[in-house]
Design goal:
The protein is mostly helical and 382 residues long. The protein has 19 helices and no strands. It has one domain. Helix 1 (9-19) packs antiparallel against helix 10, helix 12 runs antiparallel to helix 13 and helix 13 runs antiparallel to helix 14 (240-259). It holds the Pfam family PAP2. This is acid phosphatase. Residues 141-258 form the Phosphatidic acid phosphatase type 2/haloperoxidase domain. It catalyses: a phosphate monoester + H2O = an alcohol + phosphate. InterPro entries: Acid_Pase_classA_bac (IPR001011), Acid_Pase_classA_bac_CS (IPR018296), PAP2/HPO (IPR000326), PAP2/HPO_sf (IPR036938).
Length: 382
């Protein structure tokens, strides 16, 4: 059903519902830094805001996501491929992929992302979180009520507006169900929409911030955000287009956060706290520690893996399409290339982007978000 036919009242009802949610985050793992007094958390005034009051315009991300309606109405072949790809990935998943996807479902997104930090640094980071030693990072990025999220929560409104049934509902006999013993992760998902993927959106949103704080590991962190999306396909609860839509939404949102001077100040404070606490925990230079650590994957592997996850084998649906990378996206690379101008950072994003015209990409002012390959941009050498 086209979003243009929805009653405006739906958004108001869902807004009220989302404001009433009180969700909590999951647990974290451990490895021990030197105990010292925990740093101060954000003041209440800092935790309250600032949110750009008019962002996103109209209160939803439908304008950057509604390429999905075009595909449903005009390209049934792409919708068919969308389902076939889920079935293939779900049915062929290795035990390791299944286990990772299940863990991703239940873990906080920041815990899932921390795998990208390396064999030794990842546990140190999780220990800092568990011990409350990086409260500014936690306030911005832990759980469904994290301050870097939308004021109204995750993708609840967008999911209801697009109303796309999940793969295991559409093809129940073709999707393998993977669960932890005694739990059923599918039980609560059958009645809500699949597009866009909330796990993916949160993965890329918090991954964008974590990469901003630790640019030395930017490609690995962004690739891990992509794996969070892939895990949703492995479970058969999301389609590739859901994952691609989640990335579009998150890239727009983290760009907005970093482009807002007040919110960027909070991000910068959290980054300084994180790096200071990590260096205290490892007993020296963080850059040297990262260089000596066993990486989650090489930079080259991270870039190649993330590029594959950007389009999931779809061909271009609009080969003649043209658009530009949105100007606000330049803020994504401010910590990676601090000596460059926004125009130069934008040029890097343009140079490392995929071509226009893939499914969900758009022309005009709402287009270009799908094209941004942040893993490749972090790996770029001017």
């Amino acid at each position: 059903m086209s979003t243009s036919r929805l009653r405006p009242a739906l958004i108001s009802v869902l807004t009220a519902l989302t404001l009433g949610l009180g969700l909590v985050s999951g647990g974290v793992a451990a490895a021990a830094p030197t105990p010292v007094a925990a740093p101060a958390a954000f003041t209440p005034a800092q935790l309250i805001g600032p949110y750009p009051s008019d962002y996103p315009p109209g209160g939803t991300y439908v304008p950057v996501l509604d390429g999905f309606d075009v595909l449903r109405e005009q390209r049934p072949d792409i919708i068919d491929q969308n389902l076939r790809t889920v079935i293939r990935i779900n049915n062929s998943a290795t035990p390791a992929q299944q286990a990772d996807a299940i863990a991703i479902n239940y873990d906080d997104r920041l815990t899932s992302l921390s795998e990208a930090l390396g064999k030794r640094l990842g546990p140190v980071f999780r220990k800092l979180l568990a011990d409350g030693r990086v409260p500014k990072v936690a306030a911005l990025t832990e759980g469904y009520t994290a301050r870097a999220m939308l004021p109204l929560g995750t993708t609840l409104i967008e999911k209801e507006i697009f109303g796309n049934p999940r793969p295991f509902v559409v093809a129940p006999g073709k999707i393998e169900r993977y669960n932890r013993p005694g739990e059923d992760l599918y039980a609560d998902l059958g009645g809500n929409g699949s597009y866009p993927s909330g796990h993916t959106s949160m993965g890329y949103l918090f991954g964008g911030l974590l990469a901003y704080w630790l640019p030395e590991l930017g490609p690995q962190i962004v690739a891990r955000a992509g794996e969070i999306g892939l895990g949703r396909i492995v479970l058969g609860v999301h389609y590739p287009l859901d994952v691609m839509g989640g990335r579009i939404m998150a890239t727009d949102l983290v760009s907005a956060r970093l482009s807002d001077p007040g919110f960027r100040s909070l991000v910068e404070q959290a980054g300084r706290q994180l790096r200071a606490e990590l260096e205290r925990a490892v007993g020296g230079s963080l850059t040297r520690f990262i260089a000596a650590d066993t990486p989650y994957m090489s930079t080259q592997q991270a870039v190649a893996e993330h590029r594959r996850m950007m389009t999931y084998g779809f061909a271009k649906t609009a080969p003649a399409q043209r658009n530009q990378i949105p100007a606000s996206a330049a803020a994504l690379l401010a910590s990676r290339f601090p000596g460059l101008t926004d125009a130069q950072r934008l040029d890097i994003l343009q140079r490392t982007a995929i071509d226009p015209g893939y499914p969900l990409d758009k022309s005009g002012s709402d287009g270009g978000w799908l094209r941004i390959d942040l893993a490749a941009a972090y790996a770029y050498t001017p």
